[in-house]
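job 3f2a | input accepted
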Amino acid sequence: MTSADSDTGLLAPGWAGSPAAAETADAAFLRALLDAETALTRAQAALGLVPDEAVAAVTGAATPGRFDLASLAERARDGGNPVIPLVADLARAVGEPYGPFVHRGATSQDIMDTATMLVAARALDPVLADLGRTERALAGLAAEHRDTPMPGRTLTQHAVPTTFGLKAAGWRSLVLDARDRVTAVRGSLPVQLGGAAGTLAAFTAYGADDATALTAAYARELGLRAPVLPWHTLRTPVADLAGCLAFTAGALGKLAADVLTLSRTEIAELSEGSGGGSSAMPHKANPVRSTLIAAAARRAPQLAATLYGALAAEDERPAGAWHAEWEPLRDLLRLVGGTARDAAELTEGLRVHPDTMREHLGLTHGLIVSERLSAELAPVLGRARAKELLTGAAERTRAEGRSLSDLLAEEPELTDVDLGEPTDPARYTGSAGVLTDRALERR
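job 3f2a | predicted structure (443 res):
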């Protein structure tokens, strides 16, 4: 395969050059397929089912560089998967007398599923590392800005004040949720071993007294979990992968969506540490990391939906359902791998602008604290009168551009009421600091 034919990620800047790109490339899948084949030979040798000499012969021949990826891809059309031509090439490379021990007792799906789990495990490890970087960066931001006031926004409008520390703590909570889900799935990835129809019959025919012991030995060889049953049409492992990957993309997408909004020119409460340029506008510093994360978050759910759809797999081995998983799963691993990298870079370089946040608290001329004033004035004026007075004052504030505190100070009923603290947005962040502290206790 020439460089012109290979998938370099030209249209995928979100994952190009990431660890996930390397761990999910065709060469990585080839390596995983060969690892699955050699591990099966080692596991059978450990149980006395094949001679030890076969292990050395198969392992020596299973060098990825000796196999032609383009040829394997083309010949995969004949049997519907790349394992069939690979086994033929590997057995030929091993030669006599040990070539017949290659793939002995297994079916193509055993090797393809196991290799897919290996690829997933290898791709998830750097994802977890990058989620750790993101979590640490967000913890630092949340602690530093525990009491930094800013407008809280609901339905795109100013609501009541909040703090940037609480916002960052919320992002971190989602990142930790993603980490926990990825960790659980990473630890549960199983080998696949069932033979032609999930009964392990061929391994028994080749002399295994307890073929389930072979599954356990196979799992040990690869560092994966031994499943209770072959899962040729019981696709929980793939569905769990789909779920944790889609969640991770969405969790990081929430962070990106907030950064994109808050880094708008008109808002400018945040900015990326190293914005991207424009081909036409020299002044631009685009939030590129957030943009790529947001793009991934939009694609991930549809890819996961395909994998969930593959759960409805007929018989003991399916036609089409299993085959439909390969590309969307690889795309998901790539997307999330690139997104985790981008999130780490984004949060480690994120710039916070507290002065701008504080300035924006005054954009509504005090209306952002109307909730607090309602609570403060109800005992003094009665609930109905307090609502009537504040509603009228709010209308005048919007119409005249005068501050709510100035208008209220002119009301005879409020002559003896101290409106200083109740009209200060920075003094109305509720339990934001306590909530931030509590969130940061989670490790």
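job 3f2a | The chain has a mean pLDDT of 94.
job 3f2a | closed
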